[in-house]
Amino acid sequence: MKVRHTPLPAFVLALAIGVTTGCSTEQPDAAGSSQTATSRPVGVAVSTGPRERLTIDTSPSSVELDDSTGEVYVLASNEILVFEQKSNALINRIRVAPGAEDIAFDRVNRTAWVSGSSRSNAPEDRTVNIVDTQTKRVIGSVEVAYPAIAVGVDPLAHRAFVVNRPDDQTKVPDSRAWLTVFDTRTREEITTIDLPFAAYDIDVDPNTHSVLIAGWFNAALLSAQTLAVDRARSVGSASSSLEAVVDPERGRAYVVSDGAMWTISTGTSASVTEREIDWDEGSMAIGPGSTLLVADYENRGLLVIDPETGSILRRVPVDVAPNSIATTPDRRIAYVSSNPDKALSIIRFE
């Protein structure tokens, strides 16, 4: 997933109630550029136009796009705001369980699976809401044994994956979690897999039917079909903070932690490459030309990374403390959410 994770004690998100949304545009600076350029490989387009800013009336926990409709979904506490992509108009508000933080789309069944946790181990934290993406209504739910931390869907394999474990922000978690697998057609549970680390993130490659799971000190790759963990393509870190994302078009998965980046093949090759990097991990998404987009949480920036070298191609200014990134199917538009600023930065790559 694409959300900035805080494995150590996290601050409780402040809830805000308002009635307005708005969109503004930041013009380039005097030199004609709204970002700082560095070197870039031939063929990778990383220049951008003026940054647009969409203000909302609540504090977003994450942002994601429904690739089948192009609509932008912003998760915020106990609701989801849905925006039309071209006009940035708010078209719906969907009430869901408190603590909504992760969403995964099933384009086959035209649904979205939404997990959320108040980080209090309340009974409602174990519920995953299922939203009809056409009517924008909650049409059902499934329940897992522990608070639902993250969710992923492989539409063609007809499977949804829910990472769940006890979640208490006041203490270090136990070194285990569970991955509960559901049939997306019937919503029946298929099985639950015991994971030997405290997982908190999941991303799915629907082309190779690979599931990437990240958590405290570890990341693991497993098959969406056989549910077998590929130990040859699992990685370990000395840090509890890992960020992960898959690039289905290139058949790759990327894991970033503690000054290192691992590139994992999700295809038939079992290759894993590790390289040193000089930037910090943050929420990630795939950008234009299969670049990596990384949220620079401390410096209110969006980094454009060359995945072949791990080098920074460009820094794009965004709002304070960017915590989530989503991109359009063509990777030409990026949406970056800011919880403190109650806003989305909209970056258009040229």
TrEMBL record:
Residues 25-48 are annotated as: Disordered. Residues 25-39 have a biased composition (Polar residues). This is YncE family protein. It comes from Nocardia cyriacigeorgica.
